[in-house]
Design brief:
- The protein is mainly α and about 325 residues long.
- α1 runs antiparallel to α11 and α2 packs antiparallel against α11.
- The longest helix has 29 residues.
- The protein is globular.
- It starts with 5 loop residues before the first helix and ends in a 9-residue tail after the last helix.
Length: about 325
């Protein structure tokens, strides 16, 4: 059985950090880059850096054989969410954005229910949904709200739509791309999204980028995209595809702390009250209250079947 050993905990800590900081980098990048330019830059940088690994593993050819579904995955996992996040963070604090994206398990549970998964109706998971969405309500409409007006509410809606997209994307992989290596899917998707957004980014870039924004954009592509995926695959190999994504419960903490310390974002009462409700609700909705993550039926690999476990190495969600 794959266990958390010293190296696994190091990889876990790295993932908690590198997918907790994208919201900070996005916030800084959109100060002088258009959202489309940020998407184009980070995806092309990430794709170029991942390409040698994909070529070495010969994972691109299988991805090209399912190019339609790979592009669909890229659209839902990257093209839409990355643009929405950039636009939303022109209004929202980075910490709040990271926390709202953490609602992915809530939407994933609802999507699984519409697909026939009645385990969502079990008391603990149902309570998780109620608690999680109550937390969102407290954050958005609670005391000391850090956003005001229709623009802020629109931005919140954009981030919640990102969470919906992140919840849908793995279903595409699980049902349509099970025979395609995850690295091939990700690399090809990044290239496709980057090429699509490059002309849009050039047309919408109306000011000279600052040094801070440029550094943030480069770090988004290098650290939060290329390095993050490489480390994530190493973590999957170490502890398995079911336990590996557990770091996503730590990402919002990193996002909120960094936003507060580095950008001086305020900690509102609504955020302080809603934060634990969202995390608790997500944990209950995803695991049913067990200490071990529930292995979804649509991903369920046999512990004695390495090939099926390899198929379950799905591209992670909520990378920001």
């Amino acid at each position: 059985m794959q266990r958390f050993d010293g190296r696994a905990w190091v990889l876990f800590a790295i993932m908690a950090l590198v997918w907790g900081i994208p919201y900070l980098f996005i916030k800084v990048a959109v100060d002088s880059y258009s959202p489309a330019a940020v998407v184009a830059g980070r995806t092309l940088i990430g794709a170029i850096l991942l390409l040698p690994f994909a070529l070495r593993q010969k994972s691109l050819r299988p991805a090209f054989s399912k190019i339609g579904w790979v592009l669909a995955f890229g659209a839902i996992e990257m093209a839409g969410p990355f643009l929405l996040l950039g636009h939303a963070e022109q209004t929202l604090p980075s910490g709040l954005t990271g926390l709202l994206v953490a609602t992915v398990p809530l939407f994933a549970a609802l999507i699984a229910f519409t697909g026939g998964d009645r385990s969502v109706l079990k008391p603990a998971r149902a309570i998780g949904l109620v608690v999680g969405f109550a937390g969102v309500a407290v954050i958005v409409a609670g005391p000391g709200l850090a956003i005001e007006g229709g623009g802020g509410l629109l931005a919140v809606g954009e981030v919640l739509l990102v969470a919906v997209c992140y919840a849908i994307a793995p279903f595409i992989v699980a049902h349509k791309l099970t025979d395609v290596p995850a690295l091939g899917t990700i690399t090809l998707s990044l290239f496709a999204v980057g090429i699509f957004y490059l002309p849009i980014g050039l047309l919408t870039q109306h000011e000279v980028p600052t040094v801070d924004s440029t550094v943030a954009l480069v770090l988004l592509g290098v650290v939060c995209t290329a390095v993050a995926f490489i480390v994530f695959f190493a973590l999957i190999k170490r502890v398995g595809p079911v336990r590996a994504p557990l770091f996503t419960y730590v990402n919002p903490v990193v996002a909120i702390v960094l936003g507060t310390i580095i950008l001086g974002e305020s900690l509102t009462l609504g955020l302080l009250v809603g934060f634990p409700l969202v995390i608790l609700g997500c944990w209950l909705a995803a695991t049913g209250g067990t200490l071990r993550a529930r292995e979804p039926d649509l991903l369920a690999p046999s512990a004695s079947d390495p090939e099926r476990e390899k198929d379950a190495e799905l591209p992670p969600v909520a990378p920001g």
